[in-house]
Design brief:
With 171 residues, this protein is of the alpha+beta class. The protein has 7 helices and 4 strands. A hairpin with an 8-residue loop joins strand 2 and strand 3. The radius of gyration is 19 Å and the shape is elongated.
Length: 171
């Protein structure tokens, strides 16, 4: 009886692992396309693989968090921040969400003109499931720099770690 239970648990664990691997492999193609677009400054492909609304929301949330930290819990400061965060996030999004801004990330993952382009399996090995059906790109034991979400038939950049983006990347 215990052997059957152990066998059943093993099958369930293997199935879950296979799903995670399939998800990472599926996402790797779109992550690859985005990193190539960043490397080559291909704005059209970049835009097709970026969820601007999610990234602007992240910028807006970051602005609100900064206001909370700097202004404490002052209702006036928070009200002003709430009014300004949306328009500021729109301006920042237009200025920052473009291929040139993400060059350091592409370089970090090996997408430079002087190196061979990593294959889909290599990219899949750098992707980690982070919950809610999302994956993040991270080198072994490194930070999750870019986060991707599945929208329809395409994985799109939906988040980034601004603190990790400010790191001086090692080659």
């Amino acid at each position: 009886m215990r052997i059957k239970a152990l066998l059943a648990l093993t099958v369930v664990a293997a199935s879950l692992g296979a799903c995670a691997t399939a998800t990472r492999y599926d996402a790797a193609g779109d992550v690859h396309a985005l990193l190539i677009a960043i490397r080559d400054n291909d704005r059209a492909t970049f835009d097709a693989h970026v969820d601007r609304r999610a990234l602007k929301y992240q910028i807006e949330s970051r602005l609100m968090e900064e206001a909370r930290q700097r202004g404490g819990q002052s209702n006036g400061v928070m009200a002003l921040a709430a009014l300004a965060a949306g328009p500021l996030a729109d301006v920042a999004g237009e200025a920052l969400i473009r291929p040139e801004t993400f060059h350091a990330a592409a370089n970090y993952y090996g997408y430079t003109p002087d190196r061979p382009i990593p294959g889909r399996i290599a990219i899949a090995s750098t992707l980690r499931p982070v919950g809610d059906g999302r994956v993040c790109a991270a080198k072994k034991d490194g930070p999750c720099l870019l986060t991707f979400s599945l929208e329809g038939d395409r994985w799109r950049l939906s988040g980034f770690d601004p603190q990790a983006a400010n790191l001086h990347f090692k080659r």
